Amino acid sequence: MKNKITLTVSIVSILLWIGSISVFLYYFLKGKTIESDDKRTAVVLNNSEKDLVLREMRTLLLSVNGIVKGLGEENYPQAEEWAKKAGMGLVYSIEVQERTIIAKLPIEMKELGLSTHRDFDHLAGTIAQKQPIPVILKELGQLTSKCIVCHNMYKVK
Ligand code: HEC
């Protein structure tokens, strides 16, 4: 009898444990999101979090603009500097403020975002090597495809 109770208690604890882990994993992978009317996934952020994300986005556009302008003038150092500004350094510089946001983003969005920043660092390297401009533009084209992919999938609410 005593053994049976112990067994039942153990099974219940294990089930509860599995349940908690599943709930944690579900939210970790899904983030804080809702479906939106335009079929994109909307990430639910508060106002200051939204401001921070959009400010980061405007920095990305500024960088793309600076890179293209720099390349147009064959000013490699200028193009490289703009590429670096959107690299992983940008992520580290706002890491603390972004902590609450990170938990609300779906995992694929986080991965896509980080890989875009890594691509900017890679691009800065390609520019530093003074590769031919078509080679650099091809890489920039691949990088900016990620902007499009993410914008097609997600929005902020
Ligand atoms: C991981 C996802 C992701 C990637 C990658 C991404 N963006 Fe965004 N971006 C967003 C989201 C989400 C919004 C908000 C869109 C909305 O709510 O409609 C946004 C908005 C913007 C905005 C509008 C900012 C504002 O003030 O309203 C600009 C500009 C922008 N992105 C530029 C870029 C550029 C340039 C790139 C690539 C170099 C890029 N983004 C890559 C997710 C992403």
For the record, give the distance between the C-alpha atoms at the N and C termini, rounded to a whole number: 55 Å
Reading the helices and strands in chain order gives HEEHHHHHHE
> How many structural domains are formed by the residues?
2
- Percent helix: over 70%
Mean pLDDT: 92
Small-molecule binders here are: heme C
Beta-strand segment tally? 3
Description:
The protein has two domains: 1-30; 32-156. Helix content is 78%, strand content 6%. It has 157 residues and is mostly helical. The chain has seven helices and three strands. The mean pLDDT is 92. The radius of gyration is 22 Å and the shape is elongated. The longest helix is centred in the first third of the chain and has 29 residues, at 2-30. It has helices spanning 2-30, 47-72, 76-85, 88-93, 95-102, 107-128, 133-153; strands at 33-35, 41-43, 154-156. The protein has a three-stranded mixed β-sheet with strand order 1-2-3. Helix 2 packs antiparallel against helix 3 (76-85) and helix 6 (107-128) packs antiparallel against helix 7. The structure holds heme C (HEC). Heme C is lined by residues 54, 57-58, 60-61, 64, 109, 112-113, 116, 144, 146-147, 150-151, 154-156.
Topology (SSEs and partners):
Layout: H1 2-30, E1 33-35, E2 41-43, H2 47-72, H3 76-85, H4 88-93, H5 95-102, H6 107-128, H7 133-153, E3 154-156
Parallel strand pairs: 2-3
Antiparallel strand pairs: 1-2
The protein binds heme C.
Quick overview of this protein structure:
The chain contains 7 helices and 3 strands; from the N terminus they run αββααααααβ. It is mainly α.
